[in-house]
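Lecture 7 notes: from sequence to structure.
We start with the chain below.
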Amino acid sequence: MSETDTDALVDALYAGPLEEFVAARDAAAKQVAAGGDRVGAARVKKLRRPTVAAWVVNQVARRHPDEVAALASLGDELRAATADRDRGRITALDRLRRERTDALVGQVREAGDIDGRPVSTDALDRLAETLTAAVMDPDAAAAVRGGRLAQALQHVGFGIVDEGGDTADVVALRREAGDPPPTEPGGGAKPATRPEPEAGPEREADTVPEPPAEALADAERAVQETADGVDRLEARRDDLDQAFQAAQAQVRQREAEVGRLEEEMQRLLTARDEARAALREAQAAQEESRAALDAVDAELDAAEGRAAAARRRRRDARRTDT
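Predicted structure tokens for the same chain:
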């Protein structure tokens, strides 16, 4: 299997679902080994499963390449403005960085999920930090644009760190992303500088002997088993995190329903109190009307009594006249 084919398999791993990464990685390693490339198979097997935040960054880099590239290009402009000590330009570019970062993170926040996986507030914060790191460091920018991060990045005062706070080897990350760092004039990547040991009779004694092949194989197996264990724990953590996010979404939904019911209950209670007040007013008016009616009835009875008495007097008067 060619290096290009292996690279395509690796690229597909980081583009795929997070929960399938470990199984897909192991299958890809077997496929590469079956093609006769044992070195490539070992490289694939050692790939670390991305954290949730890193997976989000990778998907954003793949689905919004133009926006991420525009952000990364600001880094070159910022470094040039810094070299020129152009404070006005630095301020304007930094404001533009914040605007573009907020806009891209806002798109992800508004979507709410990526391929059905909810994007938490913590993942959004780490996405913003990683995008900022891409602006601040050209190697980090290349690594982010490659979409193969295993951990999210953050720019701090002394450089780029990963989610654990350890210094990130952004040059290695850039190389793993398929974008090797610039070469030195005359060809070849710039080598890491190491002090040469002083010549002398002690040099041979200071040379570290090569470990036995069996011990080296045991150590490599132990490293791989540890890495596999970490992958399983991270997968379990991600599953639990996804379950937590789903439960949290349900809690928010139920809280919203309770809020609506409480508002409706409050509205009904207010309507009940208003109806009771209106009832009391109506009852008071009824009592007033009844009292007035009783008074009229009493006056009517008195008037009828007076009328009856008058009729009797008239009748008596008529009898007297006759």
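Points to note: Residues 1-49 form one domain. Confidence is low (pLDDT under 50) at residues 184-208.
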